[in-house]
Design goal:
The chain contains ten helices and twelve strands. It is an alpha/beta fold and about 300 residues long. The protein folds into three domains: about 80 residues, Arc Repressor Mutant, subunit A (Orthogonal Bundle), CATH 1.10.10.10; about 100 residues, Periplasmic binding protein-like II (D-Maltodextrin-Binding Protein, domain 2); about 100 residues, D-Maltodextrin-Binding Protein, domain 2 (3-Layer(aba) Sandwich), CATH 3.40.190. The strands form three sheets. Strands 4-3-5-12-6 form a five-stranded mixed β-sheet, covered by helices on one side. The protein has a five-stranded mixed β-sheet with strand order 9-8-10-7-11, covered by helices on one side. Helix 5 links the parallel strand 3 and strand 4. The longest helix has 21 residues. The N and C termini lie far apart (about 95 Å).
């Protein structure tokens, strides 16, 4: 003998969370007419909503007492909980508020060239410490143009020249235009007399390349004039090049804005040939775009770069 058992699946429908707002108003007003007026519903629509609430909660919620309505014990139990739920939901769904910077505790990671950190870093730290004492800035060196750290969230902000290899989803903001200038120690023989492209080329130069490349924008500009400079050594960053030029007779050609503080006490000169200007930008991932604290820091970086010499 075979026994076949049939089970009916019990389907529990998800409650309509919109009813929470209706319930909150009903419980606070204790009156269907006034609740309908606050919710801008017709009396019939309000009555239907009350019927749905009674069905959903399994409680009459409001019952007639003489000419008015009084709350049931279940209504009194729910009143504060429902009110808090509605407030929490409204808080979640509205735009994030600007944080109290004095109370903000957070560490932001900035991926930049060493020149950017050394030239703009002190002013950034001073400004953020003044406005948000609990904020810490962590500078990590930018060794390549890979945008993976931004995508992964390990880096908050990055500075640099926008490249084709960067992720298309990244947000960008231009910070400033920059150009190459030459720099030598005070007393260098290059300071005296007229500086022609040929005279510039005869000096011994410091090449700058993170990847150790032999040709850069300076060399390309000189090649167009049929000239070639002697690269005595190659370093990986602007600050190293400036420090080396300060202590030797070598010539460094570096971005002007990136190295403003680093070149103090040295002789800076305009290159005797044209080189292309370039735009340094601020980059961040869309996940942080609407974050109020992140937005504040982006504004600080923008202002510091705008007013720095």
């Amino acid at each position: 003998m075979h026994f076949i058992f049939a089970f009916n699946a019990i389907h529990v429908s998800a409650p309509d969370l919109n009813l929470l707002v209706t319930l909150d108003v009903l419980l606070s007003e204790g009156n269907v007419t006034r609740a309908a007026r606050r919710l801008r519903l017709s009396p019939s629509a309000m009555s239907r909503a009350l019927a749905r609430l009674r069905e959903t909660t399994g409680d009459p919620l409001l019952v007639r007492a003489g000419r008015g309505l009084v709350p049931t014990p279940r209504s009194l139990e729910l009143r504060e909980r429902v009110s808090q739920l509605v407030q929490d939901a409204q808080s979640v769904l509205r735009p994030a508020e600007i944080p109290d910077l004095k109370q903000l505790v957070r560490t932001f990671t900035l991926r930049t060239s060493e020149g950017f950190a050394e030239n703009f870093g002190p002013d950034l730290i001073a400004r953020t410490s003044l406005e948000a004492p609990g904020v810490r800035l962590r500078f990590v060196q930018k060794l390549d143009k890979d945008s993976a750290p931004l995508r992964e969230g390990s880096v908050d902000l990055e500075t640099g020249v926008i490249a084709n290899t960067m992720g298309p989803e990244l947000r960008t903001q231009a910070l400033f235009r920059d150009r190459f200038v030459g720099v030598v120690r005070m007393g260098h023989s290059l300071i005296d007399g007229e500086l022609s492209p040929a005279r510039y080329a005869t000096g011994r130069h410091i090449g700058i390349s993170r990847q150790g490349l032999e040709m850069g924008p300076i060399d390309e500009a000189m090649s167009a004039l049929g000239l070639e400079r002697e690269i005595a050594t190659t370093v990986g960053g602007f600050s190293t090049a400036v420090a080396m030029a300060r202590a030797s007779d070598l010539i460094a050609s570096v971005p002007e804005r990136h190295t403003g503080n680093l070149r103090a006490g040295m002789h800076t000169f305009t290159l005797p040939f044209a080189t292309p200007e370039f735009t340094v930008s601020l980059l961040w991932h869309p996940r942080f775009h609407a974050d109020p604290a992140h937005r504040w820091l982006r504004g600080v970086v923008l202002e510091i770069c705008a007013f720095a010499p």
